[in-house]
Amino acid sequence: MREVDVLGVRVEMPTNHPIVLLRERDGGRYLPIWIGAPEAAAITYAQQGVVPPRPMTHDLMRDMLAVLGHTLTEVRIVALKDSVFHAALIIDGTTEVGARASDAIALALRTDAKVYVDPSVLDEAAIVVSSEEDDEVERFKEFLDHVSAEDFDKPEDPDATSET
């Protein structure tokens, strides 16, 4: 397993689909994972330290683990099947529970659990960023510093026209 950092969420253009971008900690590969808008908001909330007035699903999961005396040890992105990323929650170091990658990442961010990716998944789906593209990654990081979770809650109006 290869440890990754969660760089953040962005909206992929022109499709307007959110992605979460992971970066291999000891390597130059980046793993984009397409996710839904609610999951994008959940990940962004966690990265920004937003505490909602009522717990979101991932907050509830974190709180239930704590009340029951369990710890999320790590999260693993274990497979890519039919363009869908599969993950596992490792609880107390031994118990494995299947999860969607986006949910696993959102929960890891709330519990400070490490995130790992199977090398075969990185080999299949990761991209290598050249030094010129590194500048784009830096701009993406700057974007992440200014994006808010509410940016992913806005419904798209397909009938809207742009003004020129």
From TrEMBL:
In its UniProt entry, what is this protein called?
Answer: BFN domain-containing protein
* Molecular function GO terms recorded: nuclease activity
Pfam families xrefs: BFN_dom (PF02577)
- InterPro entries this protein is in? BFN_sf (IPR036104), Bi_nuclease_dom (IPR003729)
Which organism encodes this protein?
A: Intrasporangium chromatireducens Q5-1
Domain BFN: where? 1-129
Query: Mind telling me which SUPFAM superfamilies this protein's record contains?
Result: Hypothetical protein TM0160
Q: Which domain of life is it from?
A: Bacteria
Which Gene3D superfamilies does the UniProt entry name for this protein?
Answer: Bifunctional nuclease domain
Taxonomically, what lineage is the organism? Bacteria, Bacillati, Actinomycetota, Actinomycetes, Micrococcales
